């Protein structure tokens, strides 16, 4: 009796805590919907969580590198000029650990994890925290054991997943949830680079796909809070600080436009090479799960020749920006790093190209400046060219011209150099979009069969399918029925058209009601009235396909059929257009923050 009595207060306490939590969530949900201030407050909390996650991921990855490569705490793996050859076995070992982790995860046949760009473009910001933790583990193993990938994928994935979990707990609207995901992912990137503007614009340009009055305050608050957390913890995992004061003229901006073109070409080549390698290695079905092991062995040979290709390249960038390197050395490092990144991602290691593209861009910029000096006798400051190339190539591969321009600004504090970076970045962005059409993240989604080009919300379009919009109680009649019966069952004004069925109940065509009342059809059967006998809609067809069908056939309404030809419903062009206009207006209000 005493033990039972002791358990009652504990249950009451748990019940009160649960009730208090539910009441608090309900309060926050209502306040966020009613007041932008509360959304900013909760976004700041999301940013704090993303900052803590960034610190944990950065420390864990560096801890793995210390363990497997024997470096000190204050050293960077890619800054090592010599590494014992036997330590290169860490790369195939990392591949084996990645294979094991992936096998354990996929035994339940889970779908591929959704990244923040895909979540915001197609799923209204819905992400899985479990998937986020899995991607983080994969990226930690890849980067921590030396593969040429960055931790940005883990930062953005976990930051976005934490934000999505918070938003779904508060039952937020679709537009607010998308903003939260952008805030969480952007905050993580801002914390990683100790650059709040970079993080905020990463959220705007790459994760949300737009910059509006409605999302500026939450995303900025999250990024600022995340950076504050890392500064309070005195932890700066990716910080770059390069003082620069460069006097630039108009001619320099034109020359940097040429660097933007070179960056676009190089970026497209890298992205296509990654895709080709991934598709080629994926054709070997039996060995496909073990690709990271083979990739690790290849990376070990590359790293023996060029240790600076290991990991993302933070230490290598600091080392090479001011080092006295000739054209041959710069070209060798650039090709080696590109090859290592292509092998890493093409053979199944997990991570991003964010920092790798920054490092390769700095090498490309210096190579561009040195080539101009040697062959055209045109002088550009090598450090300025390196920083502009850093931003331009990152834009070509990752996207976000303003994001990378602000990174240069927060890196150097030089507004003139930032303007030059923006110039080169815009050139690179336009060329890539016109000739290639994808960033690295959307290119990989394209290889999986998706068609999105950015994080703009197009998921709502996919909900406007024929099956969702059709009228299910479509009027039907047998095609052999007489017209007298037709007129008796369907008076003028009752239905614009009637679906005719054959003896097996399959679709035979549409019978316009008005046609049955013309003098030419006083006698006969329904079969005499039929039109659009070969035109119909499938239930999964999107609004784009639906409207194309109406344009092609000139029909006012079309039936929706299952694969066997059985009628599921009827959809009119007017109703489809009205539903599209309603959703478009709702999306517009969400975009501008209107009610």
Fill in the keyword field for this structure:
23 helices, Clc chloride channel, three-stranded mixed β-sheet, elongated, mainly alpha, 595 residues
Tell me the strand percentage band.
under 5%
CATH H-level homologous superfamily name of the largest domain: Clc chloride channel
Name of the level-1 CATH class of the largest domain: Mainly Alpha
Largest beta sheet: what is the strand line-up? 1-2-3
How many separate structural domains?
Answer: 4
Helix content: 55-70%
**Global mean pLDDT:** 86
| 3D shape | elongated
The count of β-strands is 5
Order of helices and strands: HHHHHHHHHHHHHHHHHHHHEHEEHEEH
**Based on the structure given, which CATH architecture of the largest domain is correct?**
Orthogonal Bundle
Predict the CATH topology of the largest domain. Clc chloride channel
Q: Which stretches are low in confidence, meaning pLDDT under 50 for 5 or more residues running?
A: none
The Cα radius of gyration reads 29 Å
Number of helices: 23
Which structural class should the secondary elements be placed in? mainly alpha
Between the first and last Cα atoms, what is the distance in angstroms? 58 Å
Largest sheet: 3 strands, mixed
Written description of the protein model:
The chain has 595 residues and is mainly alpha-helical. The protein folds into four domains: 1-27; 28-232, Orthogonal Bundle (Clc chloride channel), CATH 1.10.3080.10; 250-457, Clc chloride channel (Orthogonal Bundle), CATH 1.10.3080; 461-583, CBS-domain (Roll), CATH 3.10.580. Helix content is 64%, strand content 4%. The protein is built from 23 helices and five strands. The chain has a three-stranded mixed beta sheet with strand order 1-2-3, with no helix packed on it. A two-stranded antiparallel ribbon has the order 4-5. Strand 4 (557-561) and strand 5 (567-572) form a beta hairpin. Helix 7 packs parallel to helix 9 and helix 8 packs across helix 9. The protein is elongated. The two termini are 58 Å apart. 49% of the residues are buried. The mean pLDDT is 86.
